Amino acid sequence: MNDGTLPKTYEFEDVEPRCYERWLKLDCFRANPASDRPSFSMVIPPPNVTGQLHMGHALNNTIQDILARYKRLKGFEVLWVPGTDHAGIATQNVVERELSREGLTRHDVGREAFLEKVWQWREKYGGIIINQLKRLGASCDWSRERFTMDEGLSRAVRRVFVTLYEDGLIYRGERMINWCPRCMTALANIEVEGEEVAGHLYHVRYPLLNGKRALVVATTRPETMLGDAAVAVHPEDPRYADAVGRQVLVPLADRAIPVIADPYVDREFGTGALKITPAHDFNDFEIGQRHGLPLYRVIGENGAMTEEAGAYRGLDRYACRKRVLEDLKKGGFLVKVEDYTHRVGHCYRCRSAVEPMLSLQWFVKTKPLAERAMEAVKRGDTRIVPEKWERDYFNWLENIEDWCISRQIWWGHRIPAWYCRDCGGVNVSLKDADRCQACGGDRLDQDGDVLDTWFSSALWPFSTMGWPENTPELHKFYPTSVLVTAFDILFFWVARMMMMGLNFMQEVPFRDVYVHALVRDAQGQKMSKSKGNVIDPLVMMDRYGTDALRFALTAFAVQGRDIKLSEDRIEGYRHFVNKIWNAARLVLMNLKGSSLTHEIPENPERLGHRWILSRLQQVIKDVEAALEGYHFNVYAQTLYQFFWHEYCDWYLEIIKPDLYGDDPRAKAIAQTVAAQILRKILVMLHPVMPFVTEEIYQRLPEARETIMWEPFPLVEESRVDAEAEARMGLLMEVITNIRNIRGEMNVAPSARLEVVCLCERAEDAALLDAYRFMVEDLARLSRLEAAPTGTRGKPRVAASAVTGGAEIFVLLEGILDFESEAQRLQKEITKLEKEIVAARKKLSNEDFLTKAPSDVVEKEKEKAARLGEKIAKMRVHFSRIETIRQSAAVH
């Protein structure tokens, strides 16, 4: 493989699977708990077993892989634990859909047969996302892959449940919960996502008994009035002072209910009178408890009206709403209907509107656990990055409510509780119970519910390392070093892991939590299939290669800011991959048959060598600081800038005369410096671009079996050379200014120019004179004259620029036809002015601004701004041409 050359083009389709297979064969990802190296560990946020790789996964796992590969290069023993989550509700829904195609339900086949089908489904499809993560380049320790329903994790889940129950932190009770009528299960509060819904506010008359007056109540859910137990008003509201203590009639329900006074009522909302339905609203339940109100359950678990709904029994809740409104209108009870936008809770899985209802469920008492989780972050035991997320973390934990952990589904960890038919006793046990602890009876039934999926995920940092056994992995790698996660599961998962880790390991589960933002489309919109703006990472990897996708995500991963991603940006970084390949190819071609020194002289005489070596030291420092501080965009951009704009655009061009010249020593030094710097750049780029760097590295002299076994570059302070950087900086500024003038003046690339450079400092003139051949070569000059200011006159027929104490004159007489150039510019300016008038006219059109899509309007604004900038530049250029033309005429 190491023949010293690279193919003409980089074929990622061939390279990527071959490189990944190489790493697996060399066992590069396996962690050794017996190692004496310092440890670095992470647990992967387990994707759902039903999942497919999306751009959020791609970002999350790219960041983790960067950290894992970087720390290996730094000499750490790295454990990155992979795995998948059983995703109770989502997986059950998938298998139930398959059954429905056969005309069956899970109840038709029974619990045992249904679970067997789920396991079969998992066996067939559960590895899809794991293989997709491998395609992304994830360097997880696959020998330690875990699943939240595997035997070891199931044992850990039962131990935690039983321990918390025995400690009084888990209990069973009847409380208000959120219920999903589609998934037919209870949900925890944070599994309910509020959505703004355009609805109505219905004003309904509730007649006072024994009087002509009626109280008007405003409600968004008229169907729940069938379960009303009271009408509440504020105790200080004078409008209703005489009604408190009396009774009103519930329209359509033939039931009298009391008018009560409660400070919860908002006097400004609606009419100031609030219907109270204790069995179907969290706040109403609390009011009902304070006032001893009865509970009327009129909506069932399937979303249909119950027997207590009377004539409306059996109707779907929305069909009931329609019928109730018709009957209210007929009976003269409907006063008015207003448009009203309000937040409605939806199931985070199926998006159905949830129903608050009273239900017997299992709960975790979270306040004692939450206090420790808050204190750990306040003490600095765990750091949240960016820091702004600490506020959200504290706010949620300070206002935490008990966690409903039972789910009315079959796929998941079944609750280890058995109920005695003889005495009604509850038996919670590590082993399956066969006798009642209270009466000794053997007629026991296990609870049919399973635990919330997030209950098992909360144990992930220590359960995946073998807890409750005292394993070498726990000794070496717990607590983990960092958790990389998205902000939307900060409460679902991060806070719960903190609570469980502190309770069962007596230590935080991770030292750092890095919270990354969302990946959005180019316009900043959230990606969704319904909008048609989803960018599929698998498609992008097929088109542009994995390295290009990874680098694009990393380059835009600014702390606390969402990523605006487009296919164009990914394609742009494919060009960067090609640039790396072509530059490496140039270096390697020039190493063939060379007398490579392998050692860079301590103080190479050429300025270009000293400059690039000095710049390299700063780049190493900046890259390390960026990765240690989770500034992934800075890491990517630092290497992009250095490799493309300094190493390729300048250094490789500077050393070409030595590479192709006849001086063997100069050639050997140029080859050595170019190759050794390339080697270090490849190592620094490897964490983000693992495939192309490995493929090139294998062609380098004295390459190890894999780039992953290379040490990360160390800063060599002796190579830092401020003088070389300043001197090279002046040469680069002069060359850049000459190139800019060539471009602005529309000078043909083939034209060789004469340049006069007048310097304020004599030493700058001497420097330019000493490196005259470099400047002439890189700026395509026939002659460079450098002199101190005042020692010669300033050329008149020339375009000029000033930089760093030097005035540059590009002689244009005989090079440029000033008349023709002035005419060309005037014609171009006229054309652009017509375009900008049309663009501004469109932007002043109210119809266009209000009716056109926002992205179209934005593009038109950007177009107008670009045209304005271009016209301004061309006018400046025209003015310069006119000035030179007049000087030439006088001359």
In short:
By secondary structure, the chain is an alpha/beta fold. It is built from 29 helices and 29 strands.
Write out the strand line-up for the largest beta sheet, numbering strands in chain order.
6-5-14-16
Classify the beta-strand content into a percent band.
Answer: 15-25%
For the terminal residues, how far apart are their CA atoms? 65 Å
Alpha-carbon Rg, integer: 36 Å
Helicity level: 40-55%
Could you tell me the CATH topology label of the domain at 192-352.
Answer: Isoleucyl-tRNA Synthetase, domain 2
Low-confidence stretches: none
Secondary-structure class:
alpha/beta
Count of DSSP E strands?
Answer: 29
- CATH hierarchy, class of the domain at 192-352: Alpha Beta
The assigned CATH architecture of the domain at 192-352 is Alpha-Beta Complex
Shape: globular
CATH superfamily of the domain at 192-352: Valyl/Leucyl/Isoleucyl-tRNA synthetase, editing domain
Enzyme class: ligase
Motif ('HIGH' region): 47-57
GO molecular function, one term: ATP binding
Binding site for ATP: 529
